[in-house]
Amino acid sequence: MISVNNVTLRIGKKALFEDVNIKFTEGNCYGVIGANGAGKSTFLRILSGDLETTSGTIVITPGQRLSVLEQDHFKYDDYSVMDTVIMGNARLYEIMKEKDAIYAKEDFSDEDGIRVSDLEAEFAEMDGWEAESNAAMLLNGLGIDTDFHYSTMKDLDGSLKVKVLLAKALFGNPDILLLDEPTNHLDLDAIAWLEDFLIDFENTVIVVSHDRYFLNKVCTHTADIDYNKISLFAGNYDFWYQSSQLALRQQQAANKKAEEKRKELLEFIQRFSANVAKSKQTTSRKKMLEKLNVEEIQPSSRRYPGIIFTPNREVGNKILEVKGLKASVDGETLFSDVNFQIEKGDKVAFLSRDPRAMTALFEIIMGRRKPDAGDYDWGQTITTAYLPLDNSEFFETDLNLVDWLCQWSNDSSEIYLKLHSPIAAQNSFILALAPMPSTVSVSRIPKFFNLYKLRPKPSL
Ligand SMILES: Nc1ncnc2c1ncn2[C@@H]1O[C@H](COP(=O)(O)OP(=O)(O)OP(=O)(O)O)[C@@H](O)[C@H]1O
Ligand SMILES: [Mg+2]
Q: Contact, 21 vs 64, CB < 8 A?
């Protein structure tokens, strides 16, 4: 168990948390949610001991091991992948290294003999002989081929490094696992594997994520950071969201009769009591539902901005037709014989295990690259806009925000741009709300949303 006792954190004069009291217990997975900048990452750093509180304490049950998903992608550059993962259990790694050093000695003294036998005993007790195969299992599960298991970290690309750091955090069955946005940069297969891993994990997990699908799958509890407080709900993200919406509705309908409110609450409870992430949580969930009083729930202070594309003109039925497209790089075929048709109203997500294939497809249909074979044809009514994977060229300019936005707008008045960029003010998010040309709406291009530079993480 890890408990947070009367914790307050001030940064300068501003209090990020005030008097927070929470206990995180075994068998539960806590999803930490909150708007951008609410303090989720900071809270995890406090829990891990990386950041001191202004007042209050964090207490971990003695003997329990806490493990954290590290964010520094270069820290282990000089180590092998296997060593990095095993370092997830610091004591085990220390024993392995000390043993190796003693065995490598040419003059092996009696003292060394005693020391090494003590180490061997501790090593066996910690399941040390299984360490490499356990680490390999985690790496394979996350999609890292056995060929890479003994590579040096610095030779891995960014996305593989992220997976190794995740395997490191998960290694050795920690008692408390802290994960800050673990699904960032993971492919769909790795996310699915992580979900299964966390559902089966029997100890305590505290995870920050902006991915509501992931949170709904893995979380038994939701910790919401809002109003400088952290409120705990026995349920997943949907449960938190729905109860907060219910609270808002009931607060707005102040004159609604008590009886009607009670009925609405009971219906809500019934709907959610059938929906539990883990069966063993049923009891705590039932207790929580029995005590649930909507009046005590503060409606969330979060706003949920929407992105609405309004085309300049109504589009025709035909959006795009692709026939027999082929692309390759250095003689390696990325895709061939790709045929599809997109019609008005379709919403299409493109997925590929090879990011080069995805980029090639979009570069081709935007006319920035020639296909090896095949053809494509946009509908008569279509104009296009494109946000490439490498978007740095957009930012190589000294224009101010309004002038920069003007480049994509028919109406260049500042008032219009500000009105149409409400998120810009809140979130430094700039491009998406510039009115888009009549087009295959950019929202169909999944990469658009994956572009970190232009994308605020959605606030859950
Ligand atoms: N060392 C620091 N000095 C000054 N301000 C800081 C420091 N660390 C965090 N902050 C501020 O504290 C707030 C919380 O930051 P934090 O990174 O914890 O938010 P978050 O909820 O994780 O946001 P996101 O969803 O964007 O990851 C922010 O306003 C941030 O600017
Ligand atoms: Mg954060």
A: no
AA identity, residue 224? D
248 & 152 share domain: no
Nearest CA to ligand 1 atom 1: 11
Domain boundary among 378, 403, 427: 378
pTM assigned to the model:
0.78
Per-residue pLDDT of 124-153, as tens digits, reads 999 999 999 999 999 999 999 999 999 999
Q: Would you say 345 and 402 are in contact if contact means Cβ atoms under 8 Å apart?
A: no
Answer yes or no: is the C-beta of 457 below 6 A from any ligand 1 atom: yes
Residue finishing a domain among 378, 401, 428: 378
Residues 260 and 275 in one domain: yes
Q: Is position 337 within any domain?
A: yes
Tally the domains of the chain.
4
Domain that holds residue 86: 66-174
Taking CA atoms only, the protein residue closest to ligand 1 atom 16 is: 39
Cβ-count burial 111-135 (b if 16+ within 10 Å, e if not): eeeeebeebeeebeebebeebeebb
Cβ–ligand 1 contact at 455 (below 6 Å): no
